[in-house]
Amino acid sequence: MQQHPYFGVLAEFPSASAIYHACEKVRDKGFRKWDAHTPFPVHGLDRAMGLGSSKLPWIVLCMAILGGTGGFGLQAWINLNAYPVVISNKPYLSWQAFMPVTFELTVLLGAFGAVFGMWALNMLPMWYHSVFRSKRFLRASDDRFFITIESKDPKFDANATQAFLRDIGATHVELLEQ
Amino acid sequence: MEKKPQIPFSPDPTAAGLPASQSHEMQSAGMSSAASFASGAAHEPVDARAPLVLGNETFASITDTVARPIESKTPLAWYICFAISLGMLSLLGVSIAWLFWEGIGVWGNNSPVYWAWDITNFVFWVGIGHAGTLISAVLFLFRQKWRTSVNRFAEAMTIFAVMCALIFPGIHVGRVWTAYWLLPLPNQMDAWPNFRSPLLWDVFAVSTYGTVSLLFWYTGLIPDLATLRDRAKSTIARVAYGIFALGWRGSNRHWLNYEKAYQILAGISTPLVLSVHTIVSFDFATSQLPGWHTTVFPPYFVAGAIFSGFAMVINLMIIARWVFKLENIVTMRHFENMAKIILLTGSLVGYAYAMEFFIAWYSGNPYESFAFINRATGPYAWAYWTMVSCNVISPQLFWFKKIRTNLWALFIISIFVNIGMWFERFVIIVTSLHRDFLPSSWAYFTPTVWDVTTFIGSWGLFFTMFCLFVRFLPMVAIAEVKSVMPEADPHHGTGGDHAQGTH
């Protein structure tokens, strides 16, 4: 794992438009282990980076199904097995009356899936990351746009990659330690 | 890369709700250089509408504007507000302590008015919350970009309002030490709650709503907490914001999942918010009491909730915008749009009032007719007509643009709307109950001092939370506001020549 003393290179870009076109070029160059860092989601940058779509909806779907079936199952089990009581001369399994709670639990678990699934896919929380070594990176959450190319990428070469990033419009390029 | 002169397709700025004097400046700075980008000299309405952010704001200046109230010295006014709020909050503590000690008898509730201010306040506070979810979820799905300036604020309002709301069903049960019987847990009698009861549905609906609202709000906060972490001067602030920012680094691979999460949360919050007040209305509508037993309740309650919530957003936003100088981010257009929603939902509420009377007559049910005639002419006629004048008449003034764009008028009418909506719940609950089927059980409800202090105390909780929110958290969604600025478009200033395949 320790072939490279560096995490990779960090390149700074001045605008949304600049990073968009830079990402297209990094993508076309064939890099795989790289990322863009922006203060807000730049529209269309996923495509410029060549990213596929998020897997999150599948997580949410599974969680929502779990919530819905679990919610209905809980009510059915209580009313059929645990505590069967005739109320208003209705059948034990009054499924219509169970819909509100089933719905609420579907939404609740779906929301857990969306939020915590997003954390899981993004591997958050991750309080340390090599990019935080750069002082300039503090502006990634303000008004600057960055590209990182990791040393793990097979096409990575400390000097050539830095030169390449300068060529495609980076205003500042630096090597990041692990 | 030179920017084209952009006047031809720019609409009349006033058409989008902006006074001509505030319309964006038509500068033709070249956008190819970083310098002009950073200075933010040009605002080009890429979608041919007036800009949402006024003045010559840049990404950096947006960050500064929103972070300033958090990073600067605490103003004296904040301490005063916070002290008053804490005082009111302690009133809540005292009132609840006395209630627990002495019992429900400290309130004015009687037989047959078993529900009075407690449930009125509960429905009032839940309703207030609905505007926050509407702004954050429904307007997001409709791609209403103007929401970005107000959604954080409105979502905070939702959470605090739900907190206030949850107090009342919790404390009104009398034997509070058995309040956990509301939950689907086997208790010492081996009994389970009745899942056919709307009151139980309400437990699930409101607690789900509170939880999902909190998650939605926090998800929106993550990038902004990272901004505050990166700007923090003190170690305590950096560590505190850093922990909650989860190590967010603005990675686009993260934004991909983040935006999807946000979209899904908006998608599931929309039916959720509709379900919450629908289920609250079931508490009444599924009973057989004349005045409650009405199929119009669910949509009517939802409209009323949005109506009161937007009025509350306007009230709070006018103050916050003035105190924290957010005029360029929260513009007159935001207020005007919210006033239009108040006008729409206020009219829906007025329609529902009329329809209740129509059905009372048309159904031929003498009890139903009696309940409604009594509502308008009986002992609580004063409350009914307060409700009608505040909820039906006052929002109609928003047909006039001059009133929609006058902050004083907006502020005063919004207060009226909130008074009216509190009275709506009071009228529905108390006037329907105080005339039972048996004239021998008729009674008149009068609140006690403890009813009043509990309600004032709930405002104390609301304002305390708000004071803490405006002091320590960004009250405008920084990342989202940036993303609706013209410079955020990657094809901004390039004449759209790279637009193919990206939209």
Notes on the structure:
The complex is a heterodimer of chains A (178) and B (503). Chain A has 2 domains: 6-51 and 124-177, no CATH class; 56-121, no CATH class. In chain A, 47% of the residues lie in helices and 13% in strands. Chain A contains 5 helices and 4 strands. Chain A has helices at residues 16-29, 45-49, 56-82, 95-122, 158-167, and strands at 6-13, 34-37, 145-150, 172-177. A 4-stranded antiparallel β-sheet of chain A has the order 2-3-1-4. In chain A, α3 runs antiparallel to α4. Chain B is an all-alpha fold. Helix content of chain B is 63%, strand content 0%. In chain B, α4 (117-141) crosses α9 (297-323), α8 (252-285) crosses α9 and α11 (366-377) packs across α12. Chains A and B meet through α1, β2, α2, α3 and α4 of A and α1, α2, α6, α8 and α16 of B.
Beta-strand content of chain B: under 5%
Biggest beta-sheet profile of chain B: none
What's the number of extended β-strand segments of chain A?
4
Backbone CA Rg of chain B: 25 Å
What would the average pLDDT of chain A be, to the nearest integer?
91
Calculate the terminal CA-CA distance of chain B, rounded to whole Å: 20 Å
Low-confidence stretches of chain B: 1-46, 495-503
Low-confidence stretches of chain A: none
| Helix fraction bin of chain B | 55-70%
Number of distinct helices of chain A = 5
Question: How many separate helices of chain B?
Answer: 16
Helical fraction of chain A: 40-55%
Mean pLDDT across every amino acid position of chain B = 85
Shape summary of chain A: elongated
The percent range for strand residues of chain A is 5-15%
Sum up the overall morphology of chain B in one term: globular
N-to-C SSE string of chain B, H for helix and E for strand: HHHHHHHHHHHHHHHH
